[in-house]
Amino acid sequence: MYPKLLHIFGPMWIHSYGVMIAVGFLFFSYFLYKNPKRIKLISNENFLNLLFIGLSAGIVGGRFIFVLYELDLFKDNYLQIFYPWVGGFGIMGSVLGILLIVPIYLKIKKVKILPLFDLVAIYAGLLEGFGRIGCFLAGCCYGADAGLHKFCSVTFTNPDGLAPLNMALYPTQLFSSFFSFLVFLIIYFRAKYFSHKNGELIFSFLFLSSLSRFCIDFFRGDRDFISGFDLISYYQIVALVILILSFIALIYIRKKK
φ, ψ for residue 5 (rounded to 5)? Predict the structure, then answer.
């Protein structure tokens, strides 16, 4: 589609993926900042520091997973691993990076982890939804050949994108974006109109998000399988683990007095 929006100089461009991530992050940050429950949990100064740490963890985690997944892309020059304009980021890696690093900061600042993560979960679907639109514009995370389902397909023609050209593919990026926004609405109304225990919202988000990823991956054309096991992809295994652990956590929380 439109992976590059504006040329800066040399190899540096403003990419549509980065712009959409920035838009999603701004919406996410603004609504979280304005949430009255957030104000009671963490000071404005610590919250802004938390955003920076979370953003950094998301970038590093997302880049790490992308490089691990697309290592052949860098085989001619491994220094390009550190060039953010080469390749992209893995959203699941970003989520894992945030879940690993942010609790450490919250622990240091003596902020209650689960209540704050519950607030994060309310708006996380917005960030992911806009990010997936960025994937669509960049051509990454593309779908498999749509075959006879051309009524539900997209054809990429821009050689700067990452998707195969001139083929009718499932628009899996838009599938993911739609379900991310749907998850946002579910968690938002769950938080607004129903009572919940600490941890229920974040684990509900992780459960729904990983379920969406697991299902949509069957329609993707860039799936990578573990050698000798081609039933489900590497990312589907990760999603399945998160789904199961989240489900167990939800049962535990519901039963806990």
Answer: -105, -45
How far apart are the C-alpha atoms of 145 and 209, rounded to whole Å? 24
Cβ 187 vs Cβ 121: under 8 Å: yes
pLDDT at site 73:
73
Q: How many CA atoms lie within 13 A of 66 on its CB side?
A: 25
The helix-helix angle for 113-138 and 172-193 (nearest 10°) equals: 160
Which of 169, 164, 162, 110 is CA-nearest to residue 137?
A: 162
In this structure, how many other beta carbons lie within 10 angstroms of the beta carbon of residue 81?
16
The mean per-residue pLDDT over the stretch 234-238 comes to 87
From CA 245, how far away is CA 251, in angstroms rounded? 10
pLDDT digits (tens, 9 = 90+) for 181-212: 999 999 999 999 988 899 999 999 999 999 99
More confident residue, 187 or 140: 187
Residue with tokens 């900061």: 105
